[in-house]
Amino acid sequence: MADSSHLFQPLTIRGLELPNRIVVAPMCQYSAVNGVAQEWHTQHYGSLAASGPGLVVIEATAVTPEGRISLGDLGLYSDAAVAAFTHLVTTLKAIGKSRVAVQIGHAGRKGSSQRPWQGGACLRPAEGAWETISASAVPFAAGWPTPHEIGPYDIDRLRHAFAEAAEKADSAGIDVVELHSAHGYLLHQFLSPLSNLRTDVYGGSLDNRMRFPLAVIRSVRRALPNDKPLGIRISATDWVKGGFTPDEAIIYLNACKAEGVDYVCVSSGGLLADAKIPALPGYQVDLAARVRQETGMLTRAVGLITGPEQAEAVVASGQADMVALGRAFLDDPRWAWRAAVALGAPVPYPPQYERAQAKLWPGGKTPRATVAAE
Predict the structure, then answer these.
(1) Domain ranges in the chain?
(2) Is the pLDDT of residue 4 over 90?
(3) Does the pLDDT of residue 200 top 90, yes or no?
(4) Nearest-5° Cα angle at 262, 261 to 268
(5) Which CATH number among 3.40.50.880, 3.40.50.80, 3.50.50.60, 3.20.20.70 corresponds to the domain 11-373?
(6) Residue 369: pLDDT above 70?
(7) How confident is the model at residue 302 (pLDDT cuts 50, 70, 90)?
């Protein structure tokens, strides 16, 4: 491994070694059927794994049917869904050296929605809508249904559902389990005072608002083997006055760390549809840097990180231990190859593709932009 590139140095998380610091961010494909992975998922994730990132994170995967964002979400709540998921994980791990993670979660009040290319609005009854749940009976946005406020039975049921999904993912051969505590979904709905108006032990103070997410984390950690890494994705700010803040995120993550969470992916926003988010290149990196400094957790930065030099600088400067790219990988599934060339690191080609390397094929020296324009 080239000493010159920090991005291509290996990273160990709870005994699991990632071959490099490049992560494919979880990106919903909205293409499952009743929670079951389809052929699209195999080709999509297979193509990404073949390009050699250190970690490929399978999209948000619901722990219950009503926990789906849309009718097209993956799930880990039925025998058919688990069988298809197991086949997907087995296939990905046979392709190359990339490790495979899954992000498990529950959409809460943002569930029962259309796929983005169908408009992304809440489903109508004729479209298969279901009743959503949340920390409080507060709709996601104007025109959205009012969710059912979760009661004590639901809290216990959901805690077990998260743990059972983690167990199923582990049995399927997953390398890492990641909890979705970001982007306005259920765990985030409990954390933010804008969506959590409860007056019981699960609302009010930050300690109370953290109570349910931490209970989920505790149950999931117990459900996994001691050597299995557990990560979490958070929204470190709601970008709205009176919402969840970076100061609260630090307190929450220190509590997560104490419960056995091994790393954090620092994202932001998603709680409210009209939040004003300054989506500039690397706009969340400073949040990741602060988290890393004040919690000591392994940290992943994400958010408009697009170029190899930009990603290298994030890791080399100590702002984060990993970088995650989403749409950059959709645009160029071979992003990791081109980053390796740009940074002078060995290119992570699978042997079947080695003849495409520049040293073996003159076309490999042609910049991608030029090839695309021809």
Answers:
(1) 11-373
(2) no
(3) yes
(4) 75
(5) 3.20.20.70
(6) no
(7) very high
CA 49 and chain centroid, separation: 16
The first and second tokens of residue 3, run together, are: 């000493």
pLDDT of residue 1: 40
Residue 27 and residue 45: Cα distance in Å, rounded?
Answer: 10
Per-residue confidence band for 359, with pLDDT thresholds at 50, 70 and 90: confident
**Are the C-beta atoms of residues 13 and 19 closer than 8 Å to each other?**
no
Contact 269, 277 (CB under 8 A): yes
Residue 28: closest CA among 135, 89, 84, 105: 105
Q: Taking each helix axis from N to C terminus, what angle separates 308-316 and 335-343, rounded to the nearest 10 degrees? A: 70
Structure tokens at 48: 């990404």
316 sits in which H/E element: helix 308-316
Q: Are 100 and 58 in contact (CB under 8 A)?
A: yes
Q: Are 49 and 98 in contact (CB under 8 A)?
A: yes
| Phi and psi at residue 317, to the nearest 5° | -80, -10
pLDDT band of 348, cuts 50, 70, 90: confident
CA distance 155 to 122: 24
CB 291 within 8 A of CB 253: yes
Distance (Å, whole) CA 359 – CA 369: 19
Q: Which residues are catalytic?
A: 185
* DSSP β-bridge partners for residue 58: 102
pLDDT at residue 370 in the model: 35
Q: How confident is the model at residue 118 (pLDDT cuts 50, 70, 90)?
A: very high
Q: Which residues have CB under 8 Å from 344's CB, separation 6+?
A: 2, 4, 5
Six token digits for residue 117: 């290319």
Beta-bridge partners for 287? none
